[in-house]
Amino acid sequence: MPTIITIVFLAVSLAYAILIISIYFGFKKIARQPRHSGANLAVSVIVPFHNEEGTIQHTLESILSQQTDADFEVIAINDHSTDNSHGVVSAMLASNPHLRLIEANGHGKKNALAEAVAAARHNAIITTDADCIYPQGWLDAMAATFSHEKCSLLAAPVIIAPIDSWFRKFQFADFASLVGSGIGAAGIGHPIMCNGANLMLDRLEYNKLTDPLNSKTASGDDVFLLHKMKALGAKICFTAQPETIASTLPAASVSTFLRQRMRWGGKTTGYTDTDSLTVAVLVAVESLLLCIGIAALPLLWMPALVLYLTKLIVDTLLLTAVCKQFGNRRLLWWMPFFEFMVAIYTVAVTLAAVTGIGKVKWK
Predict the structure, then answer these.
(1) Segment 332-342 mean pLDDT
(2) CA angle at residue 134 from 358 to 143, to 5 degrees?
């Protein structure tokens, strides 16, 4: 029995190493892509919001202040907010001719997105979140890449900011590893995930899909859209250029962070994409074995050590490349602690997804 257990640990270690090293090379490939400029593209930017009075003004200002010659509109769609979010956006209308405010008829983020896509004046559409900040040059960079690469779907990075505490630093590293993995998987021809806070799509391709956002699942509008575009054979592009990077606020507490991750984990039960399912299962098994190995010390100290060191080496390799592209390489010194924390919460999130606890509503 110990020999079989050791073989299992070694086999998972090898499979995980192959996966992450492949993703590393895919990320480097995307990071080296040339920058594009000069696209003359009309764009509709969609910002769904629900009780975001503390952040939505900053988000809209970062979009509306873009220095661009592009013909663009910003659609802020109110998903039945009960705070003063509507008032904040309304006050901005008079001084921002590019801004439109519409009220959602149905409920939930996916419904708000679908209604805004239908109401948009342009076929090139960017979806965002109401708690993100977009850098100067972002709109032109997105439009230029989308146009020159002839994309049906373009996914761009999102990072955590600010990172002025250990918990926020952990969130940055964790989120950067997810974003980097999504970019890297696309770089090797197997896109598995993206972020709807920084996503561009062709409405003509979108309209070919049946239930493009998978309305039966509360979370995952972005990933399900990616999977359906992928199944359609549409051209899916990723970018890692610094000028396309959006920043979002970290979770305010550990409980908020875990609820967010459970919401993300809950959507995996609705996956039909083979690549995504394979990666999700491998990561979950690898994390579970690491936790078992730690709990069973000293009995399993050797296979557990091999698994841990393999994970530490290849994850550090990938995250070093991601942090070099996105900044904050100083965070890498605490990777040994990061690996344990991620393994534990990955197991917890997986159990929540399997048992249905992770199926929570947006907001």
Answers:
(1) 81
(2) 100
The CA distance from 73 to 63, in Å, is 10
Both structure tokens of 341: 């924390």
Q: What is the pLDDT of residues 285-332, one digit of tens each?
A: 999 999 999 888 888 889 999 999 999 999 999 999 999 998 766 666
User: Looking at domain 34-255, which of 1.50.10.20, 3.90.226.10, 3.90.550.10, 3.50.50.60 is its CATH number?
Assistant: 3.90.550.10
The domain segmentation of the chain, as residue ranges, is 2-27+271-354, 34-255
Q: Which residue has tokens 């908020």?
A: 256
Location of structure tokens 């602690």: 337
Burial class (CB in 10 A: 0-12, 13-18, 19+), 322: buried
- Please name the amino acid found at residue 169: K
Distance CA 287, CA 298 (A): 18
Q: Please return the burial class of 143, using the count of CB atoms within 10 Å of its CB with bins 0-12, 13-18 and 19+.
A: buried
**Angstrom distance (rounded) from CA 32 to CA 239:** 9
Report the interhelical angle of 2-31 vs 166-187 (nearest 10°): 80
Is the four-CA dihedral 260, 266, 270, 271 of positive or negative sign?
positive
Reported in sequence order, the residue ranges of 30-71 that DSSP labels E, i.e. its strands, are: 43-49
The number of residues in the chain equals 363
Under the banding of pLDDT at 50, 70 and 90, the label for residue 50 is: very high
Query: Is the pTM for the entire model greater than 0.85?
Result: yes
